[in-house]
Amino acid sequence: MPASNLSAADPLGHALLDYQRGQLDASLTVHSNVAEEEPLPAAYFFRSLWEMPELERQALDECRGRVLDLGAGAGCHALELQSRDFEVKAVDISAGAVQVMQERGVREVACHDIFDAALANGKYDTLLMLMNGVGLVGTLQGLEKFLRHARTMLAPGGQILATSSDISYLYEDEDGALVFDLNGPYYGEVTYTMQYGEQHGAEFPWLFADASIVQDYAEDAGYEVEFLGEDEQQQYLVRLTVRMERDA
């Protein structure tokens, strides 16, 4: 589909397509309710293995079996896994991103929200959620919903590999004490919009879940939780596997 036929509400898709067509300086502007606006170069979605953060490389090494790459962007992780002979399905809610992945050679691509019931038709050994991928669930309520939904997508013995970050540092005062409303929404529930040129996307929620939140929600949903690594930006990689029921 030509870029001109894409919805104007898909600034990410337009930026990725422009980069794919040779506009190497294509860059989005990201607006949020917790920080100043910041640029997001389209090139970041096209990075090679050795341009990826260590946690992402580690996650790719931990993949096994049939992989579902959720929020796959321009397909950098899916393409790397394909090069290692994995069977990978890559999905993204952005129609432009899906088109880019098809053009780049990702063999199995679809346009889906992560909650789409259609995804339960396949059984995957690994659900991959990178680039702060836990954020795709949107909110704590979404996290609870996704953990239930993921069980319908996982093959027996399957795993979720995901990254997230603790952003409590954004709420530190000059003395390092945390300042936020304990009676308000969870501090990691962030609202974003993306802009590309004159195109403004719809507002969407994104969840930055600290490790204890992920552990509590995952254990309540019947998962075993294993933290595999953390970097200096307070981002971490977690593996979730469905807890085996023990006979009484």
From TrEMBL:
Entry keywords, A to Z: Methyltransferase, Transferase
GO molecular function: methyltransferase activity
Keyword Methyltransferase: yes
Record domain Methyltransferase: where: 67-158
GO BP term, example: methylation
Record protein name field: Class I SAM-dependent methyltransferase
Source organism per UniProt: Hymenobacter duratus
